[in-house]
Amino acid sequence: MYFSEALGAWIATRYADVDRVLTDHVTFSSDELRYSAQEIPHRDNPVLSSLVATDPPRHHELRRIVSQVFTPRAVANVDIETTVRGLLDRVGDEADVVDGIAYPMSVTTIAGLLGVPADPDFIRWTEAITSFAGVFTEDDTRKAEFHRARAEMTDYFRAELARPRGSDIIGTLARSGLGGDELVDFCSLLLINGHETTKTLLVNAVMSLYGGDRRTAGRSGPPAGRDRRGPPVPPAGRRHRPVHHRVNHVRRA
């Protein structure tokens, strides 16, 4: 455990320390709105009132809702393979993996799960909201982009929730007991987390197939002696994680 002057925070890296920070909910909290030691200029960020920023017992209640909506049947209704094949056919022999494959695949997939059409604004909204999360300084440009994206995303999901819903995830959430702003924020979080981390994971997996060298991946083709199809997909989620840290806050000294 050491204190980072640059971050103004204690960094836990040993297993025992990390385990305590994540499991001792009396001393540590995920609730940034209540326990942050610094002023937060983005208090209306949906991420801060969501599953990832709540403590038990509310955290467990929200997890139960997630487990009810992300069922095998709901996931099976989304044809991810057809989406990926279509994207690969479109890009040809060379492609920008991020913009040409990873982003559109993840956006189309989460949109299908939610039961809404894939909107080009999804990516802009996500980038504006996530880039402002965790920022403790007043940045007027970021702040304006955040509030614009926040308002547009809120209006979008309010309109979707007002429509008659079927058995899609938004419809299931609407019948789960969540209501008002909490329901809108929950939908927003599913959209943001549902494609941002998936995009990053997919890109990391592709880089791993090129031998894991981030500096040369994609520039010289597969390593010598390897079939162009590459080796079996590695456990990219474990080796190159899309999320590298989490922030907890001290409740008591």
TrEMBL record:
Residues 213-253 are annotated as: Disordered. Belongs to the cytochrome P450 family. The lineage of its organism: Bacteria, Bacillati, Actinomycetota, Actinomycetes, Pseudonocardiales. One of its GO terms (molecular function) is monooxygenase activity. SUPFAM superfamilies: Cytochrome P450. It comes from Actinocrispum wychmicini. This is Cytochrome P450. Residues 237-253 have a biased composition (Basic residues).
